[in-house]
Amino acid sequence: MSDAAMAKPVDVAVGILMRANGDVLLGQRPEGKPYAGYWEFPGGKVEQGEDIFHALQREFVEELGVRVLSGEAWCCVEHVYEHAHVRLYFYICREWEGEPQSLEGQAFAWQGAYSVAPLLPATIPLLEWLDRVRFAPSQAANFAG
Ligand SMILES: Nc1nc2c([nH]c(=O)n2[C@@H]2O[C@H](COP(=O)(O)OP(=O)(O)OP(=O)(O)O)[C@@H](O)[C@H]2O)c(=O)[nH]1
């Protein structure tokens, strides 16, 4: 087993901004990070002692200048990369303030049918699940803060 697989997972908060028509926001990982150039849903690592949804709100302000107002806890996925063992907490967010800006020099795109590639390996299986809920209201718990 690799060192990354043995390591305690790192919690990551990920936000799926979803417009009323079902389009979702994807961003491209900037240069200097592992998997630079790969597309992902925006987010980042949860800091020590930080609430996961608050980490998501912080990352959206830092990366995109967007204030996320609420999110539904949607699913949690673990993945072992060669560089890290991550536990990804995905939230579907339908309420936010501000238009996304490229504050870290990253590209981003609103997507209906996914036309960007490559996507982060851990995120790919989610796209099929996401298509099942994109046009149906979720019953999941809603967090606001
Ligand atoms: N944001 C995000 N991260 C994802 C997704 N899928 C996925 O496997 N990840 C993984 O989750 C981790 C996120 O870490 P990051 O490096 O982007 O976090 P960060 O912005 O806090 O980075 P930093 O270390 O520069 O502060 C990476 O290992 C990344 O590969 C996804 O859809 N969105």
Automatic annotation (TrEMBL):
Q: Which UniProt keywords apply?
A: DNA damage, DNA repair, DNA replication, Hydrolase, Magnesium, Metal-binding, Mutator protein
Domain named Nudix hydrolase is located at: 9-133
Instruction: Give the matching CDD domains.
Output: NUDIX_MutT_NudA_like (cd03425)
Q: Which Pfam families match?
A: NUDIX
Q: Which EC number(s) does the record attach to this protein?
A: 3.6.1.55
Q: Which residues form a coiled coil?
A: none
Q: Tell me the residue numbers annotated for binding Mg(2+).
A: 43, 63
Residues the entry annotates as binding 8-oxo-dGTP: 29, 40-43
PANTHER family named among the record's database cross-references: 8-OXO-DGTP DIPHOSPHATASE, NUDIX HYDROLASE FAMILY PROTEIN
Q: What is this protein called?
A: 8-oxo-dGTP diphosphatase
- Organism for this UniProt entry: Massilia yuzhufengensis
